[in-house]
Amino acid sequence: MMTLEQLLRQHFPAAVFEDSDDLRVGSLPDWNSLAHFNFLLLVEETYGVRFSVDEMSDLKSIAEIRARLSAAGIAA
Amino acid sequence: MIFLQDVIPAEDIVAWQAAGACDVERVAAQLEPVFMGIDHFLANHTSTPLLVAWGNAAQETVIESARHPSVWEQIGRQWEAELRGRQAHSKSLYLLSMNRAFANAGLNYCLDARNYYSARCRMSQRGLVELARQVATLLARIANPGKKVLALDCDNTLWGGVIGEDGLAGIQLGQDGLGAAYVDFQRQVRALSERGVLIVLLSKNNEEDVWSVFDRHPAMVLRREDIAAFRINWKNKSENLAEIARELSLGTDSFVLFDDNALERESMRTQMPDVCTPEIPCEVWHWPAWLESSPLFAKFQATEEDSRRRQLYQARSNFELCSRAATSENEFLKSIGLCASARPVNESSIARAVQLTAKTNQFNLRTIRYDEPTLRQAIEEESATSFLVHLADKFGDHGNVGLVIAKATSIPHIACLDTFLLSCRVLSRHLENWMLQECIRRLRAKNVEILLAEFIPTGRNQIAANFLQENGFISAAEWDPQLQKSLAAVARNSAGAVFAVRTSEMSISHLDIFAA
């Protein structure tokens, strides 16, 4: 399965970064709220999870998304 | 539960789709028996509820209804209007449109209230993907013409089994089971043929075996006359397809191969990547719907030329055969009664003009694709000169086959050729020369002294590359200083090779072959 970082690179193909751990909405030039919404839908589809309305607004960083996936037993 | 497909005969649908509109009275006549039953019930049961449930199993693409209501849409409206009319008089009649119910089932997948409340986006991921897919289908058709030729395998494609081994009585084709699926598949092929798609056969077989099925099998839907060209032999299918492409004067990228054999498909993809060779469903019973819902051949609007295309290409084939037999080209062309005429682009012909700009790839100087509003705007320009070219000869009435649009430039007495194209069906008749002569005649009447023209190579229009020079046009590099000076401003923004000619100095050859 793709890692969260690979998914992020696929979603923002033009972005240049070394490590995704500290990245969050706004860290990359194209990572605006619309792109973030699409990214969360992609995460849901890829890992077979479903976020609540609250999570859709709270999950703003790679670390937060990774923690949420980890709580569901998914290493990403 | 009534499906409209079980009420309206398939032949009617095919004919209306070819014409682009239903025959309202005939639809009413086909629906009448159903309404008689409903009316009879309503007359005898005033308080018993009557529930009429109906559906439409047609799987049209988004293309057919993008510019006009599709034939099925028209029938559906007529059907429902009749039912609604009866509700005015009957309190016990209830309607159940199952396609709406089916759509609701789809909405559950395509909408997502969570997304609405978190991002004001009503669609789910699947809904977004579906939207993107449909938009891509429409944009692709706006940008590129549909495919023109369906190349079919025979054994295990048009019928089940192998004719050379199983014999006429042993192949699967007819009323029952899979045999009925092959019949329905052939019906869909026939429907495409009626709408102007050329059907050709590419089969590794003994030719007489294949024709014995066409001539003698009672369940065959396709007829010999539906087949525009064929290669039934043991040679490589890509070589055979290339030969057919030459015979029909069409590019191989206009072809779609439908073959049940994965090896043949793979071999075609490798040897002729231009040819569209789609993966097809494994199960035969999915084929009729697959063909019906495929966007490959779908059109925004049917034109009269579409429904006559098979005939027109057969005329083309006869022309090729006779011209090969003749000794002198000019004498041959003089003998076939070529009659060219210019026709206005107006309400009844604009759809054909748009289609010509969309589909003409070979004899096309600039390959500008127009949609209807843009073309309308271009020809309504007061200074524009535009006309369609109609051709008839002893091989038939070829319809409107050429389009010319010339526009004024910012400099007085200088015009430029915006569109100059000719359908590949009528090539080798020097009709392009007649078109140019007619264009020049009209421009001179408007006091145009210099006509600018441009050739934009597309990789497919090589056939038109030398046309301008052959008729006295001079390329930009060789213009005399006076010409250079007057044209500098208008030639600057060109994308291809620019040419110019003085309208008073035109000398166009081969005009003597046309009847006055």
List the SSEs and their pairings.
The complex is a heterodimer of chains A (76) and B (516).
Chain A: H1 4-11, H2 33-47, H3 53-58, H4 62-71
Helix pairs in contact in A: 1-2
Chain B: E1 2-3, H1 10-19, H2 24-44, E2 50-55, H3 71-87, E3 93-97, H4 98-110, H5 113-119, H6 125-143, E4 149-152, H7 163-170, H8 177-194, E5 198-203, H9 207-216, E6 227-232, H10 237-247, E7 255-258, H11 262-271, H12 287-293, H13 304-325, H14 329-335, E8 339-343, H15 350-359, E9 363-364, H16 372-380, E10 385-393, E11 396-408, E12 414-422, H17 431-445, E13 450-455, H18 467-470, E14 474-475, H19 481-491, E15 497-502
Parallel strand pairs in B: 1-2, 2-3, 4-5, 4-7, 5-6, 12-13
Antiparallel strand pairs in B: 8-10, 9-12, 10-11, 11-12, 13-15, 14-15
Shape of chain B: globular
* DSSP E strands of chain A, number: 0
Taking pLDDT < 50 over at least 5 consecutive residues as the criterion, the unreliable ranges of chain A are none
Q: Supply the number of helical segments of chain A.
A: 4
Q: Helix count of chain B?
A: 19
Strand content of chain B: 15-25%
Q: Span from first to last CA of chain A?
A: 8 Å
Residue ranges of chain B: pLDDT <50 for 5 or more in a row?
Answer: none
Main β-sheet description of chain A: none
Q: Percent helix among the residues of chain A?
A: 40-55%
Mean pLDDT of chain B: 90
Oligomeric status of the shown chains? heterodimer
Summing up helix and strand content along with how strands pair, one would put the structural category of chain B as alpha/beta
Question: What average pLDDT do the residues of chain A reach?
Answer: 93
| Helix content estimate of chain B | 40-55%
Give the total of domains of chain A. Answer: 1
Which range does the strand content of chain A fall in?
Answer: under 5%
Shape of chain A: globular
CATH fold-level label of the largest domain in chain B: Aminopeptidase
